[in-house]
Amino acid sequence: MSIKLLSAFILVLCVTAISGQDKTGYDPQQVFDPTFLNQSGNEYRSGNGAPGPMYWQNRADYVINTTLDTVADAITGTVTITYINNSPDELNYLWLQLDQNLFTTHSRGHMSTPVGGYRFGNVEFEGGDSIHSISITEHGSTVSPQYVITDTRMQVMLKEPLKPKGDKITLKIAYSFKIPNDGSDRMGITQTQNGKIYEIAQWYPRMEVFDDIQGWNTLPYLGAGEFYLEYGDFDYSLTVPANLVVTGSGELQNPKEVLTSTEIDRLNKAKESDKSVFIIPTDEIAKPSTRPKSNGTLTWHYKMRQTRDVSWACSKAFIWDAARVNLPDNKKSLAMSFYPVESASDTTWLRATEYLKYSIEFYSKTYYCFTYPTASNVAGRVNGMEYPGIVFCNMHAKKGGLFFVTTHEIGHNWFPMIVGSDERKYAWMDEGFNTFINIYSGQNFNNEEYKNDRTMKRLTDIMTHPGSEPIMTYPDVIQPHELSTLAYFKPASGLKILRDVVVGPERFDYAFKNYINHWAFKHPQPEDFFRSMNDALGEDLSWFWKEWFYENWKLDQAVDNVQYVNGDAYQGVDITISNRGQMAMPVEVEITEANGKVGRVHLPVEVWQRCDKWTFHYPSHTMVEIVTIDPDNKLPDIDTSNNTWMVPRK
Fold this sequence. Notes:
Elements: H1 3-18, H2 28-31, E1 59-69, E2 74-85, E3 91-97, H3 108-111, E4 130-138, E5 141-143, E6 147-150, E7 153-162, E8 167-178, E9 188-192, E10 195-200, E11 206-207, E12 210-211, E13 215-216, E14 232-241, E15 245-248, E16 251-252, H4 255-258, H5 261-270, E17 277-280, E18 297-307, E19 312-315, E20 319-326, E21 332-339, H6 352-366, E22 374-380, E23 384-387, E24 390-394, H7 399-411, H8 431-444, H9 456-463, H10 483-503, H11 505-519, H12 526-537, H13 542-550, E25 557-564, E26 573-579, E27 587-593, E28 598-603, E29 613-618, E30 624-629, E31 644-646
Parallel strand pairs: 1-14, 21-22, 22-24
Antiparallel strand pairs: 1-2, 2-8, 3-7, 3-11, 4-5, 4-8, 6-7, 9-10, 10-19, 12-13, 14-18, 15-19, 16-18, 17-20, 20-21, 23-24, 25-26, 26-29, 27-28, 27-30, 30-31
Helix pairs in contact: 6-7, 7-8, 8-10, 9-10, 10-11, 11-12
């Protein structure tokens, strides 16, 4: 066909489709933008969304020794960081995170906290990191370097540049800080009837990430934006009063020094049990018999390999139970819960280990095998926060609330603990992905005991606020009332639409797991995810990524007209539909005939590549009574009043 004839054909097609109709204002050129996501891949990040043949990332290994002062509610410690520069660049200085500096009255986070407070803000607490000394060992020489602290960042100047491709440096830092009671809902102290619960996080100076995208990633910690961290091995020791019970990320190295023989026997039993076993039951809380000694201190020693962070908690008020976690390939882990007597009932934390164990087993089987030897769920003031191998959930959560906060927080061990995205910039790559996989953990738990009945219509109302920012907005910039929508629900809903409507579950699941395998323990960017999915699916989904993640467009599909061929119902019917919003999606249409026959037509998104209206033929043999677009309500259509055409009633 000649170009001229083809152009004429397309023109006739579109004109025919919109004949007698007003145009909607939909612009297909914005949706199907040929300039979007068309940058070339490189040796670091391939065009297919996988790490390139010369992909690199730096490494940070930590040895930490910390003491908890329960009178002053303070931490004192030293951290020794071995940092390896695998990049092709020479580094003249290093950047570290001092997250505790959020908790001062002169921090950027405090100064940008709204009057009246904010969940992730700092409310009138004067704390912060005190740096007592820094030494650097480099190329056999140890020096005390110059350093500058700016809010939650510390820049350390090097006497000699850190050479590319494998040069190593060791930093030793002595530090201390006062523990905030309310640590931006990520850590803190909770008073219970049997003593304080300490949930400790962001508790040591940590390396910033140096990557191939922008070099040092030095956005300050303001509260809403979370973390971007290098991987490495951790060896940490916690010296606490002897009457406290500790749980931490990783595996306890010295159980005989900090546990009684009875507790060790119970733990060994739990490692072989699919039902929860009490290590410290209710009637033993805070009793001297639960501790190897009654006075002084004990040092709990933990190790964790291939992780981006560690966290811990301690209290004399803990009930402690545990159960075996069954992983693929006959691997095992251990799920544990720590909670006060106030939380111990059949509707609350007595089922916490059950929820934790189930979630780890489900995600391991469905997405990627859990890589840590233990997982702990800790009850306290924190409403919900995640760290590698340990999560903090609210002590008052119960029933479905406790299940969903548990399955959500431990789900973060896949995003971003295994797939190490940049939470400080792209909350949707951890919160959104995790909320997405939570949909299926909820659906499959105990015969849908806690089935989530959140409908697409309800989510549509949430996701379509006029003036709302795009998903790609940095979390610290998102309006507080929009954070849950843009970081959690909207990205999760988009992935579910992609899975259920656009490509189908089987193809999506394969591509999604392919992405996880590509980027496990690495640092993906949004474009890496988009390219990885496109490649594994064999689809150019640029239109979807643009409209869902970069824009705040609305979807409004409508049934416009139903017309019989030559006025004869037996010859079939031509149905005209329109795309009245700026967002485009595939179309599902259900047709009900007078003879009771119900049929469906699935139209690909390509029908909207040129036109805002589309006419298709349906081979009916009797009168058509009802035509419904999106009959299963799977799409976020903002106006469902125009989704159905019905034969006029006399």
